[in-house]
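Hey,
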Amino acid sequence: MKILRLAAFASFLAHRLFAQDAAPKEGALQASRDLEPTEVHARLELMQHEIYGQRVDQAWLLFNQLYGAQVRADRVLFPANTPEKEMIPGYVFTPAAGIPAGQKRPALLIIHGAFHTNFEWRWFKIVAQAVQQGYAVMFPEYRGSSGYGSTIFTNDYGTTDVADCLAAADYLAKQPFVDAKRCGLLGHSRGGMITVRLIQKYPQRFQAAVQVCALLDFVAYMSYKPDSRRREVAEDKGFGGKLPDKNLPAYIEVSPINFVPAIQTPLLCLASTGDKLVPLALNTERLIDLLKAHGKTYEAHIYKGAPGGHSFLFADTEEARDSFKRSYEFLGKYLKP
């Protein structure tokens, strides 16, 4: 009995210590930003973030100039799902005329891709179309995005980006004009990776998802990228500064291609042959085979040499228009805007 009491006390103590470590400590200070650094590298980094911030502001102004009569665009800061509850930037888009009181729209997260990018002109028409289709749209600027300072700029593939997009979905679901039971995802490239990872980790959370040219196998990705990019990616916290030969489990863990059995959400897969950034044969083609093998609910369409290749989604072409027709028909079956 005495041993059992000691074990119970040890378990209680460990829980208390863990809880204290997990929560922010009272009195902990945030490092002050040096606005006049003397070291050259620090000055260049400060200048870089200021330029990125100006680009974000310009994009915001340009969107309102072009689409403000149709779409209301609110810049927001929402809390991350972390003990520190860092504030993550994003945008919420609704009809400019407003949403009648009591009306609830389905939610749609549109998730950008790339390495250190952000909301910019290529997304304008896509966002406006989604609002016109009847969705309340959110565009999260997850950690890894540029234009919001060093904290948001810090990258961690498959970890903070996925967590921040889940937090964005949670934030959007709480808005009075949103039906929390109807939430979908649309992601391109890295955004497609985040999309597929979200429906794997949270299989009951989303009702429909669309991935376009998604990066799905990080082990394969690190095998063909140039050394400079491989080293840059390896510096992410989740990879610990190590390439796959030294830390393979970390790369396997963030690769959606390895977790297809977990998918329960209906998924639409779109891609094109001739993709020179995220090769079809290594990514979407394999995903389609696995979805079929595991009996998942999915639809797929592969375009033949779509203009723009990896970025065909943003082109003014028949392929791009067809991709949106397919996307909204697919989302509409499950989200019913």
